[in-house]
Write a structure and sequence with these properties.
The chain is α+β, with helices and mostly antiparallel strands and 601 residues long. It contains 26 helices and 19 strands. Helix 5 packs across helix 9, helix 11 runs parallel beside helix 14 and helix 17 crosses helix 19.
């Protein structure tokens, strides 16, 4: 990843006013000193997405998304931090310093870019061919599948010629060399025929990455040839196990969750019906790479695979992979129709939305499919079924979540909650260990409540410091950045204290730029946009501030004491002095107006 200095990053940020940049994505309306609009990161009807030009920050009070102009591009465009810097530098005309890289890395980067250029040229060629004399058969095929001209245009659909070297000759005229064309996966070579097209006599589906760049192709044969569907081989820009068809559109959907399909036409049919959250894996079983990619854009996935035996098996393979990535999984019932495309033609979008609302919990779907393998009319078969169910229930490590599933299954199969729960515990006691199920993100551990409370205190103290720089003279008498035991907050505190000491003020947007991870940027952004109550409440606020300082300092002292070497006498002495300071602080009254402490005793 390229490295840019803090000065370069700040120059790029300062030359890209956040309101100007975000206005290109979100319709904003000025209200007071801030701008508001509908959040692009979650569906909402009432604007809760705010952009503060004075702070050069944005924040959504609905979903918590927030940060500076770099963060916005990282979240919206799915850029890395370096890619966001490069895109904004180009927008503002800032020349970035050249990055040192090995000759090999430079060659690889150049080849990737050249392959993308070849793919783009091929996509334009296929697109134009579909709309000409040679594209009549493929165009009739697409229209026969019910696709409108607008949908074909949106997905860049095209066709390849009946002649096996037409694209090759076209790309050669554009000046591309044979080695590059071979590495693009579009052209094959052999001694007898020389260069010839990978795809010919096919309806063509360009495959794009999340940013809309063509990384590969899929082709459906026109006629009876084999294979019926053909995908590009893997190249330096195309990895089937980490690519999802339709994601370049679905990533900006306002629909809750993503619809995961099996084929191109399923995705296209759903999008044409207004369900723009549909994606599909590319001629391969779902992988962990696919699941991790889905996780970047959604918390919930609806499996809408074919309803036949192969589709059911594919769903059963996909569910644990999606769970392992931390996604909530539901399964849509398409019966009596085979796939989403067929369902949509028969019943339409409204009926499909009804099926989404009635989608089955992924784990309960697994249990229902497991039921088919056992004869529940036979006592032996029923016992085997319940034993297998109990084994799978052991995969939920959180007791409340496990009990909720026990209750649902007991009700469905009339076994009785207590009996099933006993069976689960009995299996656990015997050492039965199922494949682990990823614990849901909403599950909380009781033992973390105290830790979370301290995190909130540290966050609150930082937020107060940001809102009122007068507090630095008060807080700084007792608290240093090292007293923040949360690593993220300790780093933020260090930057804040340094900024205030050097300039007498704080620069929120610059602070966010120093955190390259999106999660860190989001967390820091929340400090600058927290709704502070009681800042003008006089004595009540001063009392709350004093109590928060004491909690943060006491926690810091306890942490250091727990990790102190018993032979470190100097360290013991420092902690003893800080404890005496804490005792004195408890007797003091903090006055914010005076910016000092006074003893009331």
């Amino acid at each position: 990843m390229p490295f840019y200095s803090e000065d370069v990053i700040e120059e790029v940020r300062s030359k890209n006013p956040i309101v100007d940049v975000i206005s290109g994505y979100v319709r904003l309306q000025k209200k007071g000193s801030a701008y508001f609009g509908l959040c692009p990161f979650h569906g909402e009807k009432t604007p809760s997405f705010s952009v503060a030009p004075a702070k050069e920050m944005y924040y959504c009070f609905g979903c918590g998304a927030g940060g500076n102009v770099f963060t916005f591009l990282m979240e919206y465009e799915n850029f890395s931090f370096a890619e966001a810097v490069q895109a904004l530098a180009e927008r503002a005309g800032v020349r970035l310093p050249s990055q040192e890289s090995s000759p090999q890395k430079k060659r690889e980067a150049d080849e990737r870019q050249q392959i993308l250029e070849v793919n783009k040229a091929a996509a334009k060629y296929y697109y134009a061919l579909l709309r000409g004399e040679h594209g009549k058969q493929a165009l009739a095929y697409f229209r026969g599948r019910g696709l409108s001209d607008g949908t074909m245009r949106q997905f860049g659909l095209g066709c390849s010629d009946k002649y096996g070297d037409d694209l090759y000759r076209y790309l050669k005229k554009l000046g591309y060399r044979d080695e590059l064309l071979k590495n693009s996966g579009l052209i094959s070579y052999d001694e007898r025929r020389g260069g010839h097209d990978k795809f010919w006599n096919r309806a063509m589906f360009p495959i794009m990455d999340a940013r809309g760049k063509v990384i590969g192709f899929g082709g459906r044969v026109m006629g009876d040839g084999e294979p019926k569907y053909l995908n590009s081989p893997e190249t330096k820009v195309f990895d089937k196990s980490r690519s999802l068809y339709g994601l370049h559109i679905a990533r900006t959907t306002k629909q809750p969750g993503l619809l995961l399909c099996e084929g191109y036409m399923d995705v296209i049919a759903l999008h044409q019906a207004g369900l723009d959250n549909a994606v599909a894996s590319l001629g391969t079983s779902l992988t962990q790479g696919h699941a991790n990619l889905l996780k970047r854009y959604a918390k919930e996935v609806y499996l809408t695979y074919d309803s036949d035996g192969a589709g059911v098996k594919a769903a059963l393979r996909a569910i644990p992979i999606l769970k392992e990535a931390g996604l909530s999984v539901k399964v849509i019932d398409l019966l009596p129709y085979k796939d989403p495309d067929e369902f949509m033609k028969a019943l339409g979008a409204d009926a499909y939305r009804e099926r989404i609302l009635r989608a089955e919990n992924g784990f309960l779907f697994e249990i229902r499919m497991l039921e088919r393998e056992h004869d529940l009319s036979d006592p032996e078969g029923k016992t085997a079924f319940y034993n297998e169910v109990a084994k799978r229930l052991l995969g939920f490590s959180e007791e409340l979540e496990r009990d909720n599933y026990i209750e649902a299954i007991a009700k469905r199969y009339q076994i009785g909650f207590t009996n099933l729960r006993k069976l689960v515990f009995s299996m656990g006691a015997k050492g039965v260990r199922p494949e682990p199920v990823k614990k849901r993100a909403h599950a909380k551990q009781e033992g973390k409540k105290k830790e979370d409370g301290m995190k909130q205190s540290q966050k609150l103290l930082l937020t107060w410091l940001i809102e009122d720089v007068r507090l630095f003279s008060v807080v700084g008498a007792y608290i240093t950045p090292e007293d923040f035991t949360e690593e993220l907050y300790r780093k933020a505190a260090g930057i804040l204290f340094q900024q205030q000491e050097e300039t007498g003020e704080v620069n929120p947007a610059k602070i966010v730029s120093l955190f390259e991870e999106e999660e860190g940027q989001r967390e820091i952004a929340s400090l600058f946009h927290a709704k502070i109550r009681g800042m003008e409440a006089g004595g009540e606020f001063e009392k709350a501030l004093k109590e928060t300082i004491i909690r943060v300092k006491q926690n810091s002292v306890n942490e250091r004491l727990a990790h102190l070497d018993p032979t470190d006498l100097a360290g013991m002495q420092r902690i003893a002095e800080e404890k005496r300071t804490l005792e004195q602080l408890e007797k003091l009254h903090i006055s914010i107006e005076k910016g000092q402490n006074s003893n009331e005793l």
